[in-house]
Design brief:
Shape: elongated
Radius of gyration: 27 Å
Structural class: alpha+beta
Number of strands: 10
Mean pLDDT: 81
Number of helices: 13
Order of helices and strands: HHHHHHHEHHEEHEEHEHHEEEE
Distance between the termini: 65 Å
Low-confidence stretches: 1-30, 32-42
């Protein structure tokens, strides 16, 4: 791509360092939305330690304005602005705040578009999904990890004296670990996709989707101190994430008092749901839990899931009894088809009786299904939920 030499406005005269000037009254966008003299909240220029830490983490010093970075990368200011915002960063005017790494990132994304490997819209999605994921990771590491580690180990030491050498030691190790986990996750996701039956299924896939919701969480927020509430939410999310991963599901997202997970196999989703109920019930510090699962076509975008199946799972959760799991008819049918649950208890009893007469082993079922009353569900019509339980 070629750089937009006119900057963000047409007819602008060049400014210092070859940067674009502004036409009076012209509208601006992207990086050009603020003057270079504007002060940004949290600007590390006001804090020498913050500036040193930024240089350590980024591995380079500030040297480019946004226009200079876009020009060096060979992209237009408009595209550079779209990438920058998609990554989750604010407009920075024309201050010299960007590094060689920022130029390289722009060049790489634009290069993928030029090579035809990604459309421009897809490149922006890549920037957005990566930015959103890593932003949450970075916030967690600072809030829950570095904040505790940087407590002064000895009286008289300041946090400032501890932070820089600690980050200097941790940074390469955490970077290597991040790349390792990302490669592992990418390999697992790729494996799931290539096993899809056809190209259409790669996008719109049949999955079991489950919501697990803490009962009475709103009341808890009024009774508990903030620190206690934070510890409860963290314990719930950690337990749920571990159980989902251990049994072959995928944690899609956490919403404080609720987690959303998915699994390719209906039996896996059912096992996770019952394990969640059982584990939380054995923890006296945890509120009661309810889970809803639906099975069907799901659209996946940027690591999230959408569609009627997801909406149905959410609705089933809202009407599920305490410490119980409700599933839709499609998931119940899938469990029956795979032999994980009998079509009915009568059928299970008859099969056991036949096996006893023949001297053979009776069918072994993991789950029991009990049909519930049909009921209207807002936006989804009438559904017949099934109560899922573990067979004794």
């Amino acid at each position: 791509m070629t750089v937009d030499d006119t900057g963000s406005g047409t007819g602008a005269s060049p400014g210092p360092d070859g940067e674009p000037g502004r036409t009076a009254g012209a509208a601006t966008d992207g990086f050009d939305s603020m003057d270079s003299g504007d002060e940004k909240p949290g600007d590390p220029e006001k804090d020498p330690l913050a500036l040193r830490l930024e240089g350590l983490i980024l591995g380079a010093d500030r040297r480019y304005t946004p226009f200079q970075a876009a020009r060096s990368a060979g992209v237009s200011m408009e595209l550079a602005s779209r990438f920058w915002r998609a990554m989750g960063f604010p407009d920075i005017g024309q201050a010299k705040a960007l590094t060689e790494a920022d130029v390289l990132a722009l060049r790489r994304l634009a290069g993928l578009v030029e090579a035809g490997l990604l459309s421009e819209a897809m490149a922006v999605q890549v920037a957005r999904s990566t930015g959103q994921t890593t932003a949450r990771l970075a916030e967690w590491q600072i809030d829950s990890f570095l904040e505790g580690l940087t407590e002064p180990p000895e009286p008289g030491m300041t946090r400032t004296e501890v932070t820089y050498p600690l980050i200097e030691l941790l940074l390469p190790e955490l970077e290597e670990f991040l790349v390792y986990v990302w490669r592992r996750q990418l390999a697992a996701a790729t494996g799931r996709v290539v096993q899809a039956a056809d190209d259409e299924e790669m996008v719109d896939r049949r999955l079991a989707v489950g919501f697990a919701d803490l009962v009475g969480f709103t009341r808890l927020t009024r009774r508990m101190e903030e620190e206690e509430l934070g510890e409860l939410v963290e314990a719930f999310e950690t337990t749920a994430a571990d159980l989902v991963a251990a049994h072959g599901g995928r944690l899609i997202k956490t919403l404080g008092d609720e987690v959303l997970y998915a699994a390719d196999d209906a039996g896996v989703a059912a096992e996770i749901a019952l394990r969640l109920i059982e584990t939380m019930a054995n923890d006296e510090t945890m509120p009661e839990l309810r889970v809803g699962i639906a099975f069907g076509t799901v659209t996946t975008r940027m690591g999230d899931v959408f569609g009627t199946t997801v909406n149905l799972a959410s609705r089933l959760t809202s009407i599920a009894p305490r410490d119980a799991v409700l599933v839709d008819g499609a998931l119940a049918e899938e469990l029956t088809r795979t032999g994980d649950a009998p079509a009915s208890e009568t059928e299970a009893a008859e099969a056991a009786e036949v096996a006893e007469k023949e001297g053979s082993e009776p069918p072994s079922y993991r789950f029991a299904l009990q049909p519930m009353w049909q009921r209207p569900v807002r936006g989804l019509g009438v559904v017949e939920p099934w109560l899922l339980a573990r067979r004794s």
